[in-house]
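Sample 3 of the quickstart, ligand iron/sulfur cluster:
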Amino acid sequence: MITANRYFRDTFGHKMYKASIAVNVSCPNRDGSKGTGGCIFCSEGGSGEFAARGGNSVTEQIRKAIGQVKDKAGKDAGYIAYFQSFTSTYCSPDYLENILSEASSCEGIEAVSVATRPDCLGPEILEVLGRQAEKMPLFVELGLQTSSDETAEYINRCYKTDEYLEAVKALKAIGANVITHIIFGLPGETKDMMMDTVRTCVNAGSDGYKFTCLYVLENTVLEKLWRENKVEILEMEEYFDIVEEAVKLLPEDAVVHRFTGDGPKKILLAPYWTKNKRQVVNYINRRFGL
Ligand code: SF4
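Result:
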């Protein structure tokens, strides 16, 4: 396993920062074409709570995002245009091509990252992504969360794990770097099930991983279940015990982009330990020797 920082330094020769972009896309799991209401943990912000807001152009959003970290990042840093909110490929191929081209022509941008669902990667979308991957490194983030179709049904993911396996194959064929999102602590999941998820992704050939603890946000279905005591949320030590086991299953060159997520503080209800970001980062650094 290697950390994202090391991977970016080795690949780009310097530190990389993300410029988060919100674009005009929704999610098939919200607009009724696959489901309504979204995954039980997903808030109205659509997994992109930190992306810039305000209907600005891609270029304006990137400039603003770079401006915010430029002093800290220094002259040598590079930037990744990060299409984070909702399902970034749930749009027409033309629209996708336009936003990717605009992002990749912005000053400072050296790579593009697109967060999406495996069932939003039709042939024309893959062609657009393939052309983008020829221009500069392309990361595609897939929200798998679990390989158990049973859990997936419970969390209202609305696609089968087989679709993830197909998507990874197709993305690797066009030269994309695949990052898989996995949630530990989903309702009803045992540690064995969580490790099965990791093994499934490793066997599929996922290049990178983003792990997160299940967290409860306001106004989600999960909030209701949590208030009814139907969901248990992992304690910090318990969660990182699981991450440690997961990391042991990864190949040497797999990149861990995230050891845990932290929900937007304003609407985060649990787990409380994720609120103290500095403490969590220190803990991760100590525990994983980073
Ligand atoms: S697929 Fe992503 S954006 Fe859509 S409901 Fe689920 S978590 Fe939210």
